[in-house]
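Lecture 7 notes: from sequence to structure.

We start with a single chain of 998 residues. Read the sequence below before looking at the structure.
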Amino acid sequence: MKTLLRILVLIGVAPSAVFAQGSITGVVKDSSGAILPGVTVEASSPALIERTRTVVTDGTGQYRIVDLRPGTYTVTFTLSGFNTLRREGIELSGSFIAAVNADLAVGSVEQTVTVTAEAAVVDVQSTTQQRVLGHEVADAVPSSRMPSGLGALIPGMVTAISAANFTGLGSQEVGGAGGDTTTNLSIHGGQNTDFRMNLNGLSTGWANETFETGYTPNMSATQEITIDAAAVSAESAEGGVRLNIIPRDGGNTFNGTLFASYAGEGFAATNLDDDLRNRGFLNPNTIKVNGDFNPGFGGPIRKDRLWFYGSARYLRAAAYVGGMASDTTAKDLAVFKFNPDSNQRVANDATWKDGQARFTWQANQKDKFAVSWSQQTSCKCPSLMNATTAREAGGDNRWGHPQRIITLDWTQPTTSRLLLEAGALYQLNKWGWFPYDDLSAQAIPLTEQNGGINYKGRASGYRKNYNDTFRYRLAASYVTGAHQFKVGFNNSTGSTDYENWVLNPVSYRLNNGIPNQLTLRARPYHDLWKLDADVGLFAQDRWTVNRLTLSGGLRFDYKKSHFPEQHLGPSLPLLPTRNVTISRTAQLAWKDLTPKMGAAYDLFGDSRTALKVTLNKYLSGRQVDALGNPVAGLVLQTTRNWTDTNTNFIPDCDLSNPADNGECRAMANPNFGKAVGATVYDPNTLRGWGVREFNWEFTTSVQHQIAPRVAVDVGYFRRWYGNLGLGTPTGNSGGVNFITTDDRALTPADFDTFCIAAPTDSRLPNGGGYQVCGLTDLKPSRFGIASDPIVTFAKNYGKQTQNFNGFDASTNVRLPQSILLQGGISFGKTALDICEVVDKLPEMLSSAGTVTPRGQCHAETPFLAQFKMLGSYTVPKIAVRLSGSFQSIPGPPLAANLVVPNATVRQPLGRDLSGGAQNITVNIVDPGTMYGDRLNQLDLRFSKLLNWGRRRTSLNVDVYNALNSNAVQTESNVYSTWRRPQSILVPRFAKISAQLDF
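Now the structure, written as tokens:
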């Protein structure tokens, strides 16, 4: 019933997230150069169900036609007493603003002059940095047919490392070997969490503001993909990469497409060599099976009135996991050692199924509606295996029924100057992490410090998840030739329900097979969260005066949410009497104002060279449903050190007793499982004006057309953050929260500091042997005391900074004979400093036995360079298309986590480690100072093109990783197995495919 009511609201209210379409603008003059107001300007295209859009030039002789879908347009200029002028072949994509000027000669209106327009490649008015990937790119270039995979070919773009969690292949896309896995992108020092994937302008992310979504894009149902990389307008709160999928609308003629591809294990070569074997890598990554079947069909139900388009997709991707093999004793509960058989390879396996339909209705002369319905399921079964996670420690990632997205759009050009638009999106997801069917509930999850291997069971447990999201938007634009003013409103509501459980509440940590630590978990429990409102009000203006276009905007955001009443019952066997009820709790009440500013200048007045400058403030898009969660704030997990004196692999102690007893030392947190000791949130972090994490982005660039259909773009980018918190310095994409935790039960005086010596090792900086100082250990008298944590702003304890500086240079070439060339080079560096905060909160330098040296509170990468290029060329006489892409990107950042035994620490510390700890783990390589091998990847496609009338067929052979590179994508950071590869680039493999368009 709830779903039905929301569908009725979609149909009746019709509101959406922002969606920028293309525009045509220009100046109309007479033959003497005088401006001509009152000229009727008409844009027509088969892409428009209403066929034409008409405006009139204003008093400055300028006109502007907005909200135009991708396609090829004809613009006609008509004024009594003058010849009619028709400009044909104007190509629009994304939010490109095409400048089409006209000079009308005196004559009869019946006399028509037709001119074929040269395709514009420089947008001299818009300041948003946008890349458009239409079907001329998506169908030609060898790729996974995933929008984020195509987006990864943009210079400077960084793919999410988290993709390795699903496939074990690393984050680098190679021919769709991992299926739909690379789901988030970042650029120019942005956060991965700010990435948004939009469907026709509507975010497919969930209400808790995560980029994550169950939606799998369908290229046969896609008209084009636009990717906003910088200078996003006031219509969006976040400033990260915004990927927009524009769906197909059908048309006045029946048309369709059918794509199919296949690759099998026998299609792949091997790239395992002696160097990798000598480094301990025996089982390389490679494909097992890969296939895609993706038909689509559409056309008119009634010409010029009602169109439809439907599509389906079946996608399968299975890949062998590098560096991992089947554990031969996985089911023997008496064996606590990992015993892999290198001859028994393991593979992550995933299947996606999708069906969707879209209807476009021109209800009358002005009102246009479009509704889309997408229903999907997927099963990544098994999933999460990689070089350090065995099959039994992974899980099944199932996205079940329903998995649904419904969207509705409405536009009305009320007059030639007033445009109204609205839209809505409803999304429902049921999914989770589940154990294997044959997994024994008695298995104890194990982690071996020597190599960092997780096996026997999944220590962190499993989840059943429910997410629903409802978004809506209204906007009005007032458009004249020189002026475009837009105001709008958007809101979102939704909820999450995460049911967490474990098969075994106790897991072991071992070192060389000897247990030394226990982790206790209090499960099951639910995380409940509701978004009451996520309101955005914006106003933005764009004004063109001669060659200068100024744009400005202001956005107000208000986010309000709460946690419903939640109950925690018994957690067997550790907490058999637990009975905790937490009443409804208010969460967020954030209010923010963010300005947007930009200028674009047509340097020579010929629409071929543009100078652009922008300065914009954006809000963080990170996940928010855990902030202040009263359930997650309870102590639901703790560790205790353990000495297995009788070597029976059973902790002979009372695990529910927090004090020292038997073989077990005191719990790290004695409030484990209690209704007290919850983490307290500073209300100033959850409510008020300007308390949300933000970043400023400055850009300046020059875009120049050096020849017809050939343009170059050179730019500088700077980003800096505010309201940051303590985090770990990482790669280009940063990685900090705007809040941090202060344990008020502790002070800096409660810690002793010491140094250790790094091993002598030619692989380490300067051969190793150096001192690693600034290590901390809690004084024994303070170990195990009840904590008193408060989450608050890190800036309350000192200054913290994070910034990015970078340069891009790119080119875009589109010539006859289907010559296409896009790409360029990008340089960037990130700096992060949180040292003042660390000095006040030394407890943040240690967690669960891992200690961070104080000197690593400042990290600065060198300038890291990327080079990326894609292109295609069709040989005319034989109708063979040659295409490919090349990427050269930096290797992974390195760490070296040394396990230091208590005997080694005793002398510099002057005592044993507190709490009976048998060792600590220390990263002895400063972040940003060492990187793995550079990755160079070449992908090729050879296509035979066959045309019969309207039918076009492409028979393709793809060769991925044509150079058969074996660049290491991830490698062990555990010093005992340091630099051991964990995943390498998927070896060269071939894929056959065919595409029929009719």
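Residues 131-536+572-601+610-646+664-745+786-893+928-997 form a domain with the Maltoporin; Chain A fold (CATH 2.40.170.20). Keep this in mind for problem set 3.
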